[in-house]
Automatic annotation (TrEMBL):
This is Double-GTPase 2 domain-containing protein. Residues 11-178 form the Double-GTPase domain. Gene3D superfamilies: P-loop containing nucleotide triphosphate hydrolases (3.40.50.300). InterPro entries: DO-GTPase2, P-loop_NTPase. Pfam families: DO-GTPase2. The lineage of its organism: Bacteria, Bacillati, Actinomycetota, Actinomycetes, Micrococcales.
Amino acid sequence: MASTSTTMEQHIAVFGGSGSGKTVLLSSFYGAAQEPRVRRANRYAVTAEDRAQGRTLHRNYLGMRDSSTVPSANRFSAATYRFVIEPSADDLPKGRSKQKAAKPLGIVWHDYPGEWFEEDPSSAEEEARRVATFRSLLSADVAVVLVDGQLLAENAGEEERYLKALLTDFHTGLYALRDDVLEDGKRLTRFPRIWTLALSKADLLPDLDVEEFREIVIGKAGGELDELRSVLQSFVEDPDALDVGEDFLLLSSAKFEPGTIDVTTRTGVDLLLPMTAMLPFERFAKWASTRQRGAQVAEQLLKFVGPVIGFLGTSKLMKSNLVGAAVSMIGGGLGSKAVSFATKKVAKVKDQAEAEREFTTRVLARFAEDLDRGVDDRVLRRGDDA
């Protein structure tokens, strides 16, 4: 099992209705990362901390690649997957084994059953399990809500029928959970603050780019999106530091044709890691610098920004507006508690081995380039690019 002592760990929560493609998406994400050519191109490896989970995901991927077999959906099954991003075997410093190599990046993927937003709980036990599962993903900074491309295509010209139902299900489901999640009604400082809408099975709508997808969602179900934003704001302290439906993504786990599955033809899947790692840094730096915030909220915002600054502090990225803004933010009037917290985090990270910092800096720089490429290809629309 891979080490769990990662220096920087980010969480992503994935929501989607039944049949929206969550299992295929996760299997495609992990399986493709195991391909030797992909590891060589990325210069990093993605490893599942739970080997049994990793084998299952890889087997699902190989079934698609070699036998054109679609993995079975895990109905009503909530799961958490932990992945470590580490130097690939070809990229290890000379004289260092894989066991001794730096493992500074971790990604945790929370999969929330879509059926729980579509159907009422069958028992008090199941209701309690839904609440406990939702609480477990509150550590995520990025949440992805899947819009099923197949259902969108089936409702061509009347997309509002599907979109309104989808967003209303999420809205009412979250509202039903709120009182149980908020202890004594106290709003949360730790909560997913970036909610991205992603079109799964985008290969079924090949002429649709991300801007057109956004226009369909806003034009056909803008009111329901506003209601979803409102209920999410009711969960979180400082609701202004929350983006719901500002970021949009096209996703296709493979190209599916009768009798064949081409796993080499994918869209947007390779952006999930960069989004999880980089969007919180970009967005939290902006939010924390826009106006004075409470100490607890500022501390949560800086909790992730601080380590990234530490890693990038000696790199050429230090000259970028993004990092410069974050450094100015830490030096600004956020309150002594938050500034002290960030300073300690940066100092701690800067004490790490140079090789570790170089690896992390390189990976984060690659992620930033990937996000820019996704925007240029009209696969990703970032809210901060508006």
